[in-house]
Amino acid sequence: GAGVSQSPRYKVAKRGQDVALRCDPISGHVSLFWYQQALGQGPEFLTYFQNEAQLDKSGLPSDRFFAERPEGSVSTLKIQRTQQEDSAVYLCASSPPGLATNEQFFGPGTRLTVL
Amino acid sequence: DAKTTQPPSMDCAEGRAANLPCNHSTISGNEYVYWYRQIHSQGPQYIIHGLKNNETNEMASLIITEDRKSSTLILPHATLRDTAVYYCIVRVAPGVTGGGNKLTFGTGTQLKVEL
């Protein structure tokens, strides 16, 4: 079946522009996560949804970052007034219901470059 | 979540076993050891996880020491496609009191498999 998809795969923005990054999780997965990965570093947690509820947004670096998942499926990560330090790969992951392995399934990421 | 320590890089000859160590000396009794890997330009991929017993699946084996302060991920017959960054993560499983859902990645071990 289809995995987690993200779009666009690459985004170049001028400093100060707003961007919106989309994540399509695996169908039926109730948990959705966003991570930010700077060059040469491991991914860092940004925010977590369970269905449409945003249960943890402790990793969002500033109030310029906003995430939503209004119908409990597709999610959008929005960054307002982008800065050069926002340049990174933004990864989305989803997880099925139940306690089994709690495996997170990751998408390929969106590489954001802010000029 | 407990902190983990991994060597920054390792080399392995194709066809040989790759043994990737991880130290997690501050692990708590209810924390699991998870391993993920990230192939270049892809999102992380779940490999295996365990609590205290050794585990094996189609991808790898996980050996956890009796005191649970360290573990080793074993790829029994490494191939060129196993070249990736391997992340050891310690976290509380979901459903356990105080458990979280996010993954806390370090910088991982860059495994290079060569001919």
What does this structure look like?
The complex is a heterodimer of chains A (115) and B (115). Helices cover 0% and strands 48% of the residues of chain A. Chain A has no helices and 11 strands. Chain A is globular. The relative contact order of chain A is 0.33. By secondary structure, chain B is mostly beta strands. The radius of gyration of chain B is 14 Å and the shape is globular. Chain B starts with 8 loop residues before the first strand and ends with a strand. Classes of the chains: A mainly beta (115), B mainly beta (115). At the A-B interface, strand 4, strand 5, strand 9 and strand 10 of A face strand 4 of B.
Order of helices and strands of chain A: EEEEEEEEEEE
Task: Return the structural class of chain A.
Answer: mainly beta
What helical percentage do the residues of chain A reach? under 10%
C-alpha Rg of chain B, in Å? 14 Å
Could you tell me which chain pair has the largest interface and how many residues each side has? Answer: A-B, 27 and 21 residues
Beta fraction of chain A: over 45%
Tell me the radius of gyration of chain A.
Answer: 13 Å
Shape of chain A: globular
Shape of chain B: globular
Count of individual helical segments of chain A: 0
Largest pleated sheet of chain A: 7 strands, mixed
How large is the count of helical segments of chain B?
Answer: 0
> Unreliable segments of chain A (pLDDT under 50, ≥5 consecutive)?
none
Q: Mean pLDDT of chain A, as a whole number?
A: 94
